[in-house]
Design goal:
By secondary structure, the chain is an alpha+beta fold. It has one domain. The protein is built from 2 helices and 2 strands; from the N terminus they run αββα. A two-stranded antiparallel ribbon has the order 1-2. A hairpin with a 2-residue loop joins strand 1 and strand 2. Helix 1 packs antiparallel against helix 2. The longest helix is centred in the C-terminal third of the chain and has 19 residues.
Length: 71
């Protein structure tokens, strides 16, 4: 299998998984007063925008098509 076809398969898999699996995001909020440091940590999970997922799948299909062509 050509390298471009492998990249295409990876892009398609990432595109499909981005519809399903949310991406975790973590933020630290700290306040330092003198020698004392007070903080809180928030954690959220957000899904990738649909347009980005479709773009990944489209790029993967194009890479698969170009990678599977015989030269």
């Amino acid at each position: 299998m050509k390298a471009l076809a492998i990249v295409g398969v990876v892009l398609v898999l990432l595109g499909v998984l981005s519809f399903i699996i949310p991406v975790p995001h973590q933020q630290d909020h700290n306040v330092k007063i003198g020698d004392t440091k007070v903080g809180i940590q928030t954690q959220t999970s957000e899904k990738v925008p649909v347009a980005a997922s479709i773009a990944l799948i489209g790029a993967g299909v194009i890479a698969l098509a170009l990678g599977s062509r015989k030269s």
